[in-house]
Amino acid sequence: MVTNVLSQEEVKELLHPVKDPFLHRTLEETDGVKEITIKEEKKHVSVKIGIGKTNTGEQMQLQQEIVGILKKNGATTVGLRFEQLPDETIEKFQPAAEAEQEKTLMGGGKQPNFIAVASGKGGVGKSTVTVNLAMSLMRLGKKVGIIDADIYGFSVPDMMGIEERPAVRAEKIIPVERFGVQVISMGFFVEDNSPIIWRGPMLGKMLNSFFKEVEWGDLDYLLLDLPPGTGDIAMDVHELLPTCKELIVSTPHPTAAFVAARAGQMALKTDHEILGVVENMAYFESKKTGEKEYVFGKGGGKKLAEVLQTQVLGQLPLQQPYEEEDEFAPSVYQQDHPIGKEYHKIASKIVAKIEE
């Protein structure tokens, strides 16, 4: 044990390289060492530290780290107080911190653009939108992956006609590729379509694994098919992926739109940018007469976009994909299909928004 009494300068020198757990910057960069008081006779060092977020588990770990450093270098006792850094400091380092968090999550390298596809309730075609948006982005020359994060209601593998399971290579899960899109789903890890009876924390761990333990490679876009509503998984996504953008899916029915607004408000509260609204099942067009019938009502998507201060990116009618004998993919619309063309327009608008 070092016996000399630490000076204020030495304390600063020891603490400056320590990193703020939220801003991923050193305390020197953030000017986080606020006050130092030393009582020489008792070898007591008292320090006030400014960090990005207080009263968290990370603060406790930081506290242990700082106490350890100071005691190792001569302090007998250490007093620590934490305060939140000024807003302007947090704003200055926040974007870099968010990118750092996602980099850690995805294992470094180039980070994809994250798009979460959300809805207020089930049955509005959110997974269909995810799958076909991924297909359209791939047709635009992008490298695309899908995380089927709808852990209870996983349907992406079935929609895309995927029958194989992911391989494991060097302790990493290799996603299944179908039509040039990489896919990972809870459905791959469940036997015989059995029900999932998990609690929230277990679901969060599974979602984490979908990022950390999967060999995604160099993606341009990673789409997340979220469960409907604003439950645990949706909240985990908001926490794990600060820069994730969101697409809200609804039918034109006023109730569906009203419920979808909740998912949208959650995105806004957590500073996730809303890319727009996709109105699914907007109408049915009769092949015989060419007349449009508004089966689920009218105007829900437009109203929802107004509430969320965003735009309607597309209105998709009710229609099946073409049947193909050699390819089984019940929900994938072909490139030349009228709805395939609509998805192409939506994908083009999204690319323009994100990559402009």
Any overview of this molecule?
The protein is α/β, with parallel strands linked by helices and 356 residues long. Helices cover 37% and strands 21% of the residues. It has helices at 8-15, 27-30, 57-72, 87-106, 126-139, 156-160, 200-212, 232-240, 254-269, 300-307, 338-355; strands spanning 33-39, 44-51, 77-84, 113-118, 144-148, 167-169, 172-174, 176-178, 181-185, 221-225, 245-250, 274-279, 284-285, 292-293, 312-315. An 8-stranded mixed beta sheet has the order 8-9-5-10-4-11-12-15, sandwiched between helices. A hairpin with a 2-residue loop joins strand 8 (176-178) and strand 9.
Brief descriptors of the model:
single chain, 356 residues, alpha/beta, GMP Synthetase, Chain A, domain 3, Rossmann fold, 2 domains, 8-stranded mixed beta sheet, 3-stranded mixed beta sheet, 21% strand, elongated
Structural class estimated from helices and strands: alpha/beta
Provide the CATH top-level class of the largest domain: Alpha Beta
Largest sheet: 8 strands, mixed
Share of helix, binned = 25-40%
Global mean pLDDT: 83
- Count of DSSP strands: 15
Task: Give the distance, in angstroms, between the N- and C-terminal Cα atoms.
Answer: 57 Å
Number of domains: 2
CATH superfamily of the largest domain: P-loop containing nucleotide triphosphate hydrolases
CATH topology call of the largest domain? Rossmann fold
The side-by-side strand order for the widest beta sheet comes to 8-9-5-10-4-11-12-15
Radius of gyration: 25 Å
Q: So what's the overall shape?
A: elongated
Strand content: 15-25%
Number of helices: 11
Keywords: ATP-binding, Hydrolase, Iron, Iron-sulfur, Metal-binding, Nucleotide-binding
Subunit structure: Homodimer.
Function: Binds and transfers iron-sulfur (Fe-S) clusters to target apoproteins. Can hydrolyze ATP.
Protein name: Iron-sulfur cluster carrier protein
